[in-house]
UniProtKB/TrEMBL annotation:
Summary of the function given for this chain in its UniProt record: Catalyzes the reversible epimerization of D-ribulose 5-phosphate to D-xylulose 5-phosphate.
Annotated protein name in UniProt: Ribulose-phosphate 3-epimerase
Sites where the protein binds a divalent metal cation: H32, D34, H65, D174
InterPro entries xrefs: Aldolase_TIM, Ribul_P_3_epim, Ribul_P_3_epim-like, RibuloseP-bd_barrel
Enzyme Commission designation: 5.1.3.1
Species for this entry: Filimonas lacunae
Gene3D superfamilies assigned: Aldolase class I
Pathway(s) annotated for this protein in UniProt: Carbohydrate degradation
Amino acid sequence: MAIIAPSFLASDFLRLGEECKMVNESEAEWLHLDIMDGRFVPNISFGLPVVEQIRTATSKVLDVHLMIVEPEKYTEAFKAAGADRLSVHIEACPHLHRNIQQIKQLGMKAGVAINPHTPIAMLHDIIGDIDTVLIMSVNPGFGGQKFIPHTLTRIRQLKQMITEGNHDVLIEIDGGVTAQNAAEIIKAGADVLVAGSNVFKSSDPKKAIHDLARI
C-alpha cells in the first residue's frame, strides 16, 4: 500500500485544528505542507507559523515541500518548526548537493522535487544522497489541477534508476492524484501519494484517504 500524504494547501485554513484531527484519525501517515514564496512559483501559500501550529496538533510525519528560491536560508527554521522531511526543488538549487547535506545534518529526511518539464536524468548524480524524489504531476503553484499523463513515464524512468542503483529512495507524486488514477500511479512505481482536493474537498475526507490507502 502507498503512503498517503494529504496536502494542506487544499484544507480549510479557518479550521486547521479540525483538519489536523481528521487526518490524525485517518489512515494517512504523512501531512504534506506546501510552502510557496510567490517567486519560484506564481502563488503564496503559508509559512513557518502555520507549520509550527500544525506540529502541535499531530504526531504524524510533517512532509514539507519548499517551492521557494534560496531554501538554504530557511532550512534550520523549518527544522525548528517541526518538519520531519524537507524537499527542495532541483530547479531552485544551483548547489543542490550542499542543500541536501544541510537538510540531513539537521536530522531531517531530504527530498528533491522536480517539475514536469525537467528531465528525470538530472537526478542521476544526486539520487544516492536523498531519501525522496517528489515528482510534480502538475505545474507547481496551485491546487486542483489535472494530472499530467506523461508523469507515468517519468515515474517508470525514475523507478528504473533507483532499482539499477540499488538506492533506498521513495517516489512521491504530487498533483492531480485521485482514486481513479492512483492504481496506475502506484503500478508505475510510486510509493507516496500526495492528495489535496481529492481529500479535503470530499464530502467524506477520511473515506477518501481510506480509499486511496487501500488501492
